[in-house]
Design brief:
mainly alpha, 19 helices, four-stranded parallel β-sheet, about 475 residues
């Protein structure tokens, strides 16, 4: 078996930089997905073409997309850089770029939020230890206000016209691609990009802002469907379930539930990496789905996150559900037909437990690289726990996908062992102070220990690795 590091090095490459960018963008957007969904539902129900048109309630749509959502993103971006203080200055700076703009300033928020956090962070570092006793609150409050105000003015006068031009240019380019009938071909880039963890840069950095602009104008957008479509991945997993062998065949049904209903797409990535020819299946399925979306004029009112079939249905506009389901179905069927041929011809060895573990380690390495962390070959570390913990927390970057899956697995194992322990999941920078044990990935262990220095840190390569949890529960019972 070759060393995994050979396949996941290149931290300074363009791919690695795009991965880190995408991870940072996701860190700004994902915590606010609930707000996007709220706006999408209000839009779907109350605009003139909605399910129950209501002119009075439809007044919520414009201010939410113009002010609420960008300011939330700006605040979160600033907070990622410099906690709450950075978030406040980031929100002030974001207000400067959204006021007066004729389009929703999501790109502007992703720029000004982190910039505001960075500026106030550098100011605090500059004056650290130099503020006279008793003047700390005065300096802290006025520095945030003055710097935030200056950034807002700078954004309003100079940065907004530039970002507005870029946004308009991207929209025009997207419209040209659509008009020329080239949109289905975007699957050639999106489907492999997802498996390389470039999906956040693609979805949150490009497609989502384009989609929001289209929704404001047309009430729906196809751009929300291109990356989140669960159809191609479902086709691959179905092929493994029906025609696979060994561990891959046995694990495929569970993966289907997590992927298609739970919306965690990364669960199918190892199945593709076990046989890279399956890239043809997800690309073919993606192209077929996109072509169906174009032909049927499909679109969603907001980002379906996670990419579950339930979220896709919930975000469909009035009269637009069948085109969405048609595209997802076509994508799954085409992907399944292509994948079936490839899986049938694959050897049993390529679908063994060892191959699956190896593929999962590659996925874990790619995910770590996407967060800008050094990938190391380490063994899962289960530290000895002194005393029975009262709270166990699973922590990942966003606190939603992989950590939630780990929480579910360990809860079940603890229940089977007769142990009554609270298990939660969270973002690594929001771990509850009451946590006694934290499960996280090696690249996040240092950040976790800074948030909860008293907690025991258990590092894992893969949140779906049952062996780590079995050993942990065994140690607890001892």
């Amino acid at each position: 078996m070759q060393n995994t590091n050979v396949l996941i090095t290149g931290g300074g490459s363009v791919k690695a930089k795009l991965q880190r960018l995408g991870g940072f963008l996701a860190g700004m957007v994902i915590p606010n997905i609930g707000a996007f969904i709220a706006w999408g539902l209000i839009t779907a129900f109350f605009i003139p073409t909605g399910w129950i048109p209501n002119e009075h309630l439809a007044k919520l749509v414009g201010p939410m997309i113009t002010y609420l959502l960008p300011i939330l993103i700006g605040y979160t971006g600033g907070k990622l850089v410099y906690d709450v203080r950075g978030g406040v200055v980031g929100a002030i700076a974001t207000a400067g770029i959204i006021i007066g703009s004729s389009i929703p300033m999501f790109l502007g928020a992703m720029l000004m939020g982190p910039l505001g956090g960075y500026v106030i962070k550098k100011f605090d570092e500059l004056v650290e230890g130099k503020i006279p006793a008793g003047f700390e609150m005065l300096v802290n409050n006025f520095s945030a206000g003055i710097l935030g105000g200056l950034l807002a003015i700078l954004a309003f006068l100079f940065i907004e016209p530039v970002v507005n031009g870029i946004s308009v240019g991207l929209g025009a380019a997207a419209q040209w691609v659509t008009n020329k009938g080239l949109l289905p071909l975007i699957a050639i880039f999106i489907e492999p990009g997802k498996i390389l963890f470039l999906n956040n840069a693609i979805n949150h950095g490009i497609l989502a802002p384009l989609g929001v602009a289209e929704v404001k104008e047309f009430g729906k957008s196809i751009f929300f469907l291109l990356e989140t479509n669960p159809g191609p991945g479902l086709g691959v997993l179905l092929a493994y379930w029906l025609f696979g062998k060994g561990d891959a065949k046995q694990s495929a049904p569970g993966a289907i539930i997590i992927h298609f209903f739970g919306g965690i797409h990364e669960i199918y990535f190892p199945y593709v990496l076990m046989n890279p020819a399956l890239l043809l299946a997800v690309i073919g399925g993606g192209m077929a789905a996109n072509a169906t979306f174009v032909l049927t004029k499909a679109g969603l009112v907001a980002t379906p996150s996670p990419g579950s079939i339930f979220a896709e249905i919930a975000m469909a506009p009035k009269g637009g559900l069948l085109p969405v389901l048609a595209g997802i179905t076509v994508g799954a069927v085409v992907s399944f037909l292509i994948a079936s041929v490839i899986v049938k011809r694959a050897s049993e060895e390529s679908m063994s437990a060892e191959s699956m573990t190896f593929a999962r380690s590659i996925v874990s390495g790619l995910k770590a690289q996407s967060k800008g962390q050094k990938v190391e070959e380490v063994n899962p570390s289960v530290q000895k726990i002194e005393g029975m913990p009262k709270m166990i927390v699973f922590a990942c970057d966003a606190g939603m996908g992989s950590s939630a899956m780990g929480e579910t697995i360990l809860k079940k194992k603890l229940k089977e062992a007769g142990l009554d322990i609270v298990v939660k999941h969270s973002a690594v920078n929001q771990i509850p102070k009451e946590a006694d044990v934290v499960f996280t990935q090696e690249n996040l262990a240092e950040r976790a220990s800074q948030v909860v220095p008293h907690a025991k840190i258990v590092t894992v390569k893969n949140f779906l690795d049952n062996t780590v949890y079995d050993e942990f529960v065994k140690n607890l019972k001892k």
